[in-house]
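Anyone else keep sequences and structure tokens together like this?

Example one:
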Amino acid sequence: MTSEKDADALLVRVEDAGVAGFANAIGWTSSQVPTTWPMTVLPRTPSVAELVRQCSHGGLVPIHAVQSFRYRRPLRISETLTCETSLTGSTNERCSLKLHMTDTSGEPVCDANSTLLLARTLPPTAVVRDPASAPGSANPPASLESSLLTAEMFRTYQQASGDTNPVHHDHAAAQSLGLERPIAPGMMILGMLTSLLARTLEQPDIARLDAMFIAPVPAETILSLSINTTPTPGRYSLVATDRARRVYVKATAVAA
């Protein structure tokens, strides 16, 4: 992996069929375009194709670490967007990927920023507990649901999103990183969290979304997804934990 910056642009139509398949993969039931759908654009860009090629050549696997979205307005089915991406990468540590989406009049619609770790093996992650999910918590979540994560769910998400990372479906690739089995796509978990938030809100427009992927989520984990209100009106805390209250994904969303 070389330290460089690439930029490219392409026109993308927000197609109903593709959006529906993606929505189904994350449990999104709103008629609006899912908040995390812009990530499906990235695999189509030359810069990401080059990232995948260089990672494969260098024996590296990209792992999501941080993700953010900024919306000026919701995406609309059937509209065409100009999508510009830029990629900056380091030799063996991490890279940053930016996506800027504008409509046909040149008005900005969405910006998505990703930070990816480029790993040969994954170091041990610290165990972070979520006090809000403890029994008898003084601040119970506004919404809570549990889901058993399966390899089939991972494959469905990868097909819908264009994510080809083998660590999500190939046991050998997962074991090469020191994992026992494939891990969930981080963006799938974030998508499931935003889907629960959309079902919680009367008007599921999200203006800002910031997420941290704290630890990899192995297949066959029973994951608890929770939405918590905050002292700031319109601001929500989104957390994915297991039965031991270990935090895997933590995010903050701000309603439009």
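And example two:
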Amino acid sequence: MATTYLSALPTNARGERLITHLRHVDLAVPEYDKQLRFYTEMWGLSPQVTDEGIAFLAAQGSPEQYSVRLRKADEKRLDLISFGAATTDDVDAMAQRLATAGVQLVAEPDKLQTPGGGFGFRFFDNDGRTVEISSDVAVRQHRRIEEGESIPVKLSHVVINSPDPEATVAFYDKHLSFALSDTLRSPHMGEVMWFMRTNPAHHSLAIARCPHVSLHHASFEMRGIDEYMRGSGRLMRAGVDRHVRGWEKSSDHAPVWIELEDV
């Protein structure tokens, strides 16, 4: 277990971190129609807005407008990770601090054109990923997931691969004030995964050691252990692999890995 620490910046006047939570993960996928069927018909996400080649998919228990955005593409890739902030002032403060520190902004803070609107900006992290920070996104009408419903409550966390994970951990600590919760160590490889938080949850982001910049997995929260078992059983009966990541029958057939989580 690694020593937990808190970073001085960026925080607001009350000493609170400006990033509040994880909003959504945006994926580019080949076999778009198969992906869309998987996430909606098999996995239980709701298509809030679907255009030609783009779908915004919401978890029914989450107030976020969407948890996954799919985009039709020739090759799979992680397009974007989106995090929330409390106010437009916090968004502006984050953008200013990042720009002052030499972080490349993709777009200055402005009104968002995605479902739910809001105010936000995008930037590149040290590995070249696009990250978005936003506030004032309209709350989606959602509901309590009932006992026995084996569908996601919300997006829990995202894990990214990095060829220089120590530098990526340092970036999210220094510039975004993520705190290290703990690390995963291998007796042969040393530290292989770093779990980072921006709220009381154990982690909303984790960084894994890997030769390439890519998505490791996205995790969804289930209502409880019974719903977790039912959901994983449904995927197994459909031929989705539950154990080994990256094999032919990975969880959404791209393959892009998803993970179920009981809380």
